[in-house]
Write a structure and sequence with these properties.
The chain is an alpha+beta fold. The protein has helices at 29-52, 88-91, 212-217, 233-239, 244-250, 332-342, and strands at 2-3, 57-61, 63-71, 74-78, 82-86, 95-96, 99-118, 145-152, 158-166, 187-196, 201-204, 230-232, 252-263, 273-279, 294-303, 306-330, 354-357, 373-376.
Length: 379
Amino acid sequence: SLPRGPAMRCSPLNLCEYETSKLVRIKSVKLGSLKWALNGVILLVICIMLLWNKEYQEYDLVVSSVTTKVKGVAQTNTADFGEVVWDVVDYSPNEEKNSFFVATNFIVTKKQKQGKCPEVPHYGTLCRTDNDCKKGLWDIRSHGVQTGVCVKFDVTTKTCEVSAWCPIENTKKPPRPALLTSAENFTVLIKNNIRFPAFNFIRRNILPEVDGNYLKKCIYNQRTDPYCPIFRLGDVVQGARENFADIAVEGGVIGIQINWDCDLNRFFNSCLPKYSFRRLDEKESNRTLYPGLNFRFARYYTENGVESRTLYKAFGIRFDVMVFGKAGKFSIVQLIIYIGSTLSYYALVSDTNQIRVVKQSKKKSLQEVKPLSLHPRKV
């Protein structure tokens, strides 16, 4: 006979009943050995998971702040604007939260002044007569406001004249190779301060044993110096499996990931940063409408009493510093919860209200055999 699942009894008196399971003890060396072998395997797995996943710990997520400082000087000599020395103020004009930008390529438009000039065909309206132009019209892609006059752009093309900063930027594609390819030798100091509020634990990636002399000489290297907070930009891009000369032409976005996996227990105390790098933007120009990364800025000056400016379209690499991490510390509460939850594996018991009488079958399991009769359970 085999037990069948318990029947539902909806009587108020059942609330005052107490039931126990019936225990059947079978004397068998094979079954006994199998039982203790299974129990031993389950216990071993529980212990391994307890230690491997550190289930005895409570955890807290990291709270952090990041500051950066870029250093490096480069020199270029081009036909457009001669010999120029670029320092950090020139190639890193802005700094965002948890990120910094390094310009690697430029399109320069010199001596722009407020005036009237023909719009660039790609951004303006082609025309034949003044009737094709509308005074005061402004388009989202245009560089200025139309004057209502049709003028020559070149020998074969006419466009509507605009009031704008003239001459208008005309070059569409950045120089190749990039002007500041040497920026791969620039360095950046990353200062990362972290805190785990639940444990009141504070640390930074400039480790306590580091001094000023060490910081003047060290450069991050995953094998030889994995905890140096100073990074060579070329090494960062290479760590993201990219070529600096290629990404420097149109720009891109590189992620610098700092991972803190901390064990704050007394005997296993360990809290060190681990760095990794990856590219975050789409790098294939033919797969995206606006590849790379660029923005414009200007430097103003006065010439003969007239305000003028030099317009720069800067292409470059933005480095986003992303901090992840958690800290764990021994907790007796977590250990008790884990042990209590795993003990449920040993509490697999069955209850029954009826006995099924079946005829043994060699083709079907006993649970699937149709019962010959059903008998209520008695004391």
